[in-house]
Design goal:
Blueprint (H helix, E strand, L loop, with lengths): L20 H13 L6 H14 L3 E5 L2 H11 L7 E4 L6 H8 L3 E4 L22 E7 L8 H11 L2 E5 L7 E2 L2 E2 L5 E5 L12 E5 L2 H11 L3 E3 L2 E2 L10 H32 L5 E2 L7 E2 L5 E5 L7 H10 L16 H5 L7 H9 E4 L7 H12 L2
Parallel strand pairs: 2-3, 2-4, 4-5, 5-8
Antiparallel strand pairs: 1-9, 6-7, 6-13, 8-9, 10-11, 12-14, 14-15
């Protein structure tokens, strides 16, 4: 869906990036220092992020995709291994498995939380299964008790794709602290560095290997121990991340308040289903995602068009489940995953970011209610 250039101004954007003056000064100081590549600021960011998540180690990289790829490699996932994951996510959640020469095995989602359905996982476990990648989608943690039980029972590596869930909690524990956490700091996330990512773990050896992988496989200069990549984070990005981390809880709380307001009103609209929050979880609403059902007065796409006309941003995450993407069709995937496919037809994400005013929230609701 596109607009003419002259009409592409949205009064209420789906996302809003806020870089305060303190962050700008901190980044300027790094630029003036001349130390722009990975350095002391990256180390500081790693220490502070690990402390925030509650993990022993953190390894900064240059994207969430890099975090997923390096995390899998550091865990020993390789050629022919099977990795169970969800089809309802951004494609990077699964492409990272292919990068390792491993085989994605898809499991359908829970139709309320949009996260992987734990009760469907065990039937997909085979002797080749080595890991599970769960995605804490939209900012809501997965069902960790059941997933951890499965991983322990079958000796599986747990990779947490927490790229949308900075600060989200399950049973008062931050996501990214249960297994190998993988975070993104892309420009629209709950905390941003422009591009950037982080791996969190309690395993010292895994963190050590991940640090080599991000730096061409080197432990020391000009000594290459294994095949690695250029996945390093800059001190510029790390400095921005340090500043963003300080404000993360406050920004998340504002998202939660905005989501509460929207849900209180949307729950009264026939045909629209507000986000479901599962018990024992803190949902941080990277996206506020409703379902537009057949009972609503117009289709999901018609509603999007209406919102655009009223200068209100929205987005569909995700219109095509990963197993339906041409790449995976060409690889021979022919799954029937009804919950994921139904979600792709119904979901619509509305603005929920911390910069929304009460007037803007009211306008969003009025647009949904009105003719």
């Amino acid at each position: 869906m596109s607009l003419n250039k002259k009409d592409n101004f949205l009064a209420i954007n789906i996302a809003h990036v806020k870089i305060d003056e303190e962050s700008q000064r901190a980044v300027l100081a790094v630029l003036q220092s001349g130390q722009l590549a990975q350095g002391v600021k990256v180390e500081e960011f790693e220490e502070k992020f690990a402390s925030y998540i509650g993990s022993k180690h953190a390894v900064a990289v240059n994207s969430g995709t890099a975090a997923l790829h390096a995390g899998l490699l550091a865990a020993g996932i390789g050629e022919g291994d099977e990795v169970i994951t969800t089809p309802f996510s951004f494609v990077a959640s699964t492409n990272c498995i292919l990068f390792c020469g491993a085989v994605p095995i898809f499991v359908d989602i829970n139709d309320q939380t949009f996260n992987i359905a734990p009760e469907l996982i065990e039937e997909k476990i085979s002797p080749k299964t080595k890991a599970i990648i769960i995605v804490h989608l939209y900012g809501q943690p997965c069902d960790m008790d059941n997933i951890l039980t499965l991983c322990k029972k079958h000796n599986l590596v747990l990779i947490e794709d927490a790229c949308q869930s900075h600060g989200a909690e399950y049973d008062r524990h931050k996501v990214g602290s249960f297994g190998i956490g993988c975070f993104s700091f892309y420009a629209t996330k709950n905390m941003v560095t422009g591009e950037g990512g982080m791996i969190t773990t309690n395993d010292k050896d895994l963190a050590y290997k991940a640090k080599m992988i991000r730096h061409h496989g080197q432990h020391q200069r000009d000594v290459v121990n294994l095949l690695g990549y250029n996945y390093r984070m800059t001190d510029i990005a790390a400095t921005l991340g340090i500043c963003q981390l300080k404000n993360l809880d406050l920004a998340n709380q504002k998202r939660i308040q905005n989501a509460k307001y929207l849900s209180e009103h949307i729950s009264q609209i026939v045909g629209l289903v507000p986000p479901y929050i599962a018990p024992n979880r803190t949902h941080v609403f990277h996206q506020y995602t409703i379902k537009v059902t057949e009972e609503y007065k117009m289709s999901r796409n018609e509603l999007q068009e209406k919102l655009i006309k009223q200068k209100i941003g929205s987005a569909v995450y995700y219109p095509t489940p990963i197993h339906k993407q041409p790449l995976y069709r060409n690889l021979g995937y022919n799954y029937n995953l009804p919950a994921s496919e139904k979600a792709a037809e119904q979901v619509l994400s509305l603005p929920v970011h911390p910069s929304l005013s009460s007037t803007e929230l009211k306008k969003i609701v009025e647009a949904l209610v009105g003719p």
